[in-house]
């Protein structure tokens, strides 16, 4: 790692660039106060004056590094097919991790009890909104939050696996992993499109899918029902959804907040 070349840049920018370069080259352990100070050509107190502490610096490095990926996710057409958006979002997530392995590890494996990077929280909200649209389209067979959690945790596991394989020169051994896991996960949370199965025993499944959709739509605010009626209906919809093995909470809210 060499000292940041653009000496005319403001100290804050030099510090950020130095930290980003150190992270990319050596991982989180390489981003020390001494190393950043030397690379940016500043005193340690300059770092603390601009960012408070090293965690504040890492937060800003993460925000900047994640910005273009997050913007691309947020720019997805909300009038498009939400299921197709889930697939695109998964592929974008994996591609981002492989292109930025050190930053990805910082974002998703850095131990911060009770905390998360703000940008990963924003990305999860984007995922929740897409899954919500899937539910409203009658394509979700479980709750919004459980489905989003399954998709996110599986995608993160795949990405970390591929990052490790890439570092070992074995990425080609896993060329089908991401697609196979993606389709397995989506197959477990999605209902078939436009398919009505008349076989005995399938009625509960269709009722569960529609219960999930109605619970999701109710969060827009159903003015014709009282608070108590909405709570009761929400509880009944939860029970219908659970009848197909779905999570008891079919949305992101509890039954009393339908």
UniProtKB/TrEMBL annotation:
InterPro entries: Homeodomain-like_sf (IPR009057), HTH-type_TetR-like_transc_reg (IPR050109), HTH_TetR (IPR001647), Tet_transcr_reg_TetR-rel_C_sf (IPR036271). The keyword rRNA-binding does not apply. Keywords: DNA-binding. Residues 32-51 bind DNA. This is TetR/AcrR family transcriptional regulator. Gene3D superfamilies: Tetracycline Repressor, domain 2. One of its GO terms (molecular function) is transcription cis-regulatory region binding. Residues 9-69 form the HTH tetR-type domain. It holds the Pfam family TetR_N.
């Amino acid at each position: 790692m060499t000292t940041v070349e653009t000496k005319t840049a403001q100290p804050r920018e030099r510090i950020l660039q130095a930290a980003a370069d150190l992270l990319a080259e050596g991982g989180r352990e390489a981003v020390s106060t001494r190393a950043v100070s030397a690379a940016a050509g500043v005193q340690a107190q300059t770092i603390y004056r601009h960012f408070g502490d090293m965690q504040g610096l890492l937060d800003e490095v993460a925000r900047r590094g994640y910005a273009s990926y997050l913007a691309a996710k947020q720019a997805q057409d909300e009038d498009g097919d939400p299921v197709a958006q889930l697939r695109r979002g998964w592929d974008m997530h994996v591609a981002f991790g492989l292109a930025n392995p050190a930053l990805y590890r910082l974002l998703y494996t850095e131990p911060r009890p009770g905390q998360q990077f703000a940008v990963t929280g924003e990305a999860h909200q984007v995922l929740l909104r897409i899954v919500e649209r899937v539910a409203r389209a009658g394509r979700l067979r479980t709750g919004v939050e459980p489905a989003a959690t399954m998709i996110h945790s599986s995608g993160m596991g795949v990405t970390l696996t591929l990052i490790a394989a890439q570092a070992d020169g074995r990425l080609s051994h896993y060329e089908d992993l991401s697609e196979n896991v993606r389709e397995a996960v989506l197959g477990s949370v999605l209902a078939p499109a436009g398919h009505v199965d008349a076989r005995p025993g399938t009625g509960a499944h269709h009722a569960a899918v529609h219960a999930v959709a109605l619970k999701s739509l109710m969060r827009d605010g159903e003015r014709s029902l009282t608070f108590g009626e909405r709570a009761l209906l929400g509880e009944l919809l939860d029970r219908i959804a659970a009848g197909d093995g779905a999570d008891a909470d079919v949305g992101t809210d509890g039954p009393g907040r339908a």
